[in-house]
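Sequence in, structure out. Go.
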Amino acid sequence: MPTSNCTYGLRELLVKVLKRNTKRIDQSSGDEISEMASVTKEDRISSLPWDVLDGILVRLPLKEVVRTSILSSRWRRKWTGISQFVIDDKCIPSRISDKVARWESIMEILRQVQLHHTGPIEKFKLAAYCRPDHSDLDQWIHFLADKGLKEFILQEFDTIKRFNLPFCLFSCPLLNRLELFGCRIKPSSEAIGFKSLANLHLNEVCVTGGTLECPSLACVDIGLRARVVPRLFGSEGGKLIRVIGCLHAIKKLSLSSAILVFLGNNGVPDKLPALLPHLSVLELKDVQLDSLTEVLVCVCIFRSAPNLEELHLSVASTTVYYRPAADFLITKLSNHYFEQLKVANIRAVQNVQTETILIQLLLAHSPVLKRMTIVHYGGRIFPTEVLEQSVPASKDVEFFNLCV
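Output:
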């Protein structure tokens, strides 16, 4: 390949990226790559083993990877063979503002990949503001399903109707991470079983016509707006037990207020029949502490997670004191200890009495607590006298009382 400023610049960039990000590379290859920084008469980077070159290219923005096609005939199609494709707004020319036209720009990339790609595609992420043609997207997912896919991420994009996710995606034996927004999953009457899935993030996703069972999940994040009435994990009774109770390997769980309401619709036990022994991080978003249903679900999860180490809870904006919810907190948590809890973050506090009760119970029943952070919304901090009246079970706890 002829030497040029462009080529040398690319070489410099690739060497820097490789040195910074690539950890697993044999010593001989590392010496060869370091030497390339000073070589201007010979193109030796093109002769690198493909797995090493792929490890460099996937760490660059896709737009920059595509630009390597202008370097020479040897590089014209190289970009189409990489193992990870992250498509975001940066991949689309800034002059294109129409959402349909933006999708067509994305499809040109996907068509080139389908025509020329060989080998596995381990990760695909779509996070671009566009209006996808669902038939195109469906066809692309079928293509990915035979490519050894490990991560599939559909983040927010503008769409009028929900995208029906092809069932072939769930037959990918290596699929480890799944993030979906605004989709509909319509399986057969049989349960959806994920053999390798460890990370699941669902936002505005409907699951209809079957059940969703993932016993090996380590991280789950389910977001849902109140206006959406989905049928998650089947629509029969015992939702809380069926959804949360089967996540025996889970380490991190994140739930929104609306999903708490959904889970609590058909009755809530004091604790789950099978505990969640590995759950160490729990995030509860926009919880309405004046809702008895949401409080019931929260307490059930607390009592079912004996090894909880971090609690991150944001409170929905309210000025209402609802005595049944407060009384339930006192009754059920007065004899419950957070034996392993080290970090507690309570955000969007409004100085409602139910919030105060929860904070005092956490302090009094967390013997190894290291840090409690209280973030008050409204321009003034949480009253210090409330904290002074509390007797922490932990002698080492630090308080961070903030306002925004």
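Check: Confidence is low (pLDDT under 50) at residues 1-8, 17-42, 226-234. Residues 1 and 43 are 6 Å apart (CA to CA).
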